Amino acid sequence: MGRPKQFDPDDAVERAMDVFWRKGYAGTTPQDLVDALGIGKGSLYNAFGSKRALFERALRRYRDSQAAALVEMLEEPGPVKARLRKTLEFLARTDLADPDRRGCMAVNTAAELAGTDEAATELVRRMFARTEDAFRALIEEGQRSGEIAPERDPAALGSLLLNTVVGLRLVARVTENPDRLVRVIDATVDSL
């Protein structure tokens, strides 16, 4: 009979997600993961196979929690532009309040691994597509309610809003002036 696992795999993935989110894939060493998870290297590899496999699970965990939360905020009841503003302001506040200024793990992964890691790139591509689809649906709803002009292209505006979020989250990592983010949010909502 083998020894029982001395750790919770779900908790371990959550802790690993935090390490990868702060340090990136390349910047995270197996020792960083061992220290964060409180397990030995053998247990790490027995449970997850490799650093790469654990990273993929952590990125999926991020997708399932963070990206899903953004979509849920966009789908709340109320005026479309108010929901968009609330969502963008929430992202900006969250990023600015984070002492590590981690930004968005998906954006960070795209910047670090796109073009060199097809599996990670595909996961991020799908996260971005889901977010863009949620923005497109929001625009279409705004067109039906009369908040957004019907001649505007919902797909193009969905792409623009995704691009705005990616830029907003990157700028939030380095800005010392929160007013810059407020200006971006105001200009984005006013442009619709």
UniProtKB/TrEMBL annotation:
Keyword Transcription regulation listed: yes
Name recorded for this polypeptide: TetR family transcriptional regulator
GO molecular-function term, one example from the UniProt record: DNA binding
Transmembrane feature ranges: none
HTH tetR-type domain: residues covered: 6-66
InterPro entries found in the cross-reference section: Homeodomain-like_sf, HTH_TetR, Tet_transcr_reg_TetR-rel_C_sf, TetR_C
Origin: domain of life: Bacteria
Protein's UniProt keywords contain Transcription regulation: yes
Alphabetical UniProt keywords: DNA-binding, Transcription, Transcription regulation
DNA-binding region, residue intervals: 29-48
Any Pfam family matching the protein: TetR_N
